[in-house]
UniProtKB/TrEMBL annotation:
Residues 140-233 form the HTH LytTR-type domain. This is Two component transcriptional regulator, LytTR family. Residues 3-114 form the Response regulatory domain. The modification 4-aspartylphosphate is found at residue 54. Keywords: Phosphoprotein. GO terms for molecular function: DNA binding; phosphorelay response regulator activity. Pfam families: LytTR, Response_reg. InterPro entries: CheY-like_superfamily, LytR-like, LytTR_DNA-bd_dom, Sig_transdc_resp-reg_receiver. Gene3D superfamilies: 3.40.50.2300, LytTr DNA-binding domain.
Length: 235
């Protein structure tokens, strides 16, 4: 089954999409969202393979949703505005449909989605890290460390500038394999496979040097002790 989430703040638009999807017996509408925040929550809960996504919501837009997720589902934009088409394909949207959507146009977009999903099934072997104006694909092993920054997470990827992702460090912890990833403290997640050395500067501070990252990660006493315990358990 092709699991789809509809994300649009207009009830009539959601109803129109349900009607257009009804002839497709392999489609399951797993949920509907009327805001970016609700869509993000439902994606985490329901894990749809595809989103039918409006662009302009109240106070936010569909691009905010994609930028805030480390590994979003594939997306078909459904909007009344033609001017965002270039931006949509920059984030690798499967298609860009203008309202009102005709049945043949949606059918063709779904056929394209089926082909792409069959050719490149999504999973945790490859992650898509989306920040405003930037998309980076990597494997979990490429991620060196993740630091909490308020509502954002600063993601350090080998040989790349850090990315600010609108996703909590707890969500990353649930996504990444453990081991090798360790939640050393409330605000830091470390890939233990990438550790080159742990240097103790004082009783209250340790410097963790990671392969592929120029600056060391600074840990407090409790986090450093947790890290050493995890490393000792792997010996």
């Amino acid at each position: 089954m092709l699991r789809i989430l509809i994300a649009d703040d207009e009830p009539l638009a959601r109803r129109a999409l349900r009607r257009l999807l009804a002839p497709h017996t392999d489609v399951e509408i797993v949920g509907e969202a009327e805001s970016v925040a609700q869509a993000m929550e439902l994606i985490g809960q329901l894990q749809p393979a595809l989103i039918l996504l409006d662009i302009e919501f109240n106070g936010a837009d569909g691009f905010d949703l994609l930028a805030g997720m480390a590994d979003p589902p594939r997306v078909i934009f459904v909007t009344a505005y033609a001017e965002y088409a270039v931006d949509a394909f920059a984030v690798e949207a499967i298609d860009y449909l203008l309202k009102p959507v005709a049945q043949p146009r949606l059918d063709a977009a779904l056929d394209r989605a089926r082909r792409l999903l069959a050719a490149t099934p999504k999973g945790h072997d490859t992650l898509e890290l989306r920040a405003p104006g930037r998309l980076l694909r990597c494997t979990p092993g490429d991620i060196l460390a993740i630091e909490a920054e308020g509502d954002f997470s600063r993601v350090h990827v080998a040989e790349q500038p850090p990315l600010m992702i609108l996703r909590s460090i707890g969500q990353f912890e649930a996504l990444l394999p453990s081991p090798p990833f360790l939640r050393a403290g409330r605000s830091i997640l470390i890939n233990c496979d990438r550790i080159r050395s742990v240097q103790t500067r004082s009783r209250d501070e340790a410097r963790v040097v990671l392969e592929g990252m120029s600056d060391p990660v600074i840990l407090g006493r409790a986090a450093a002790a947790r890290l050493r315990q995890a490393l000792a358990a792997r010996l």
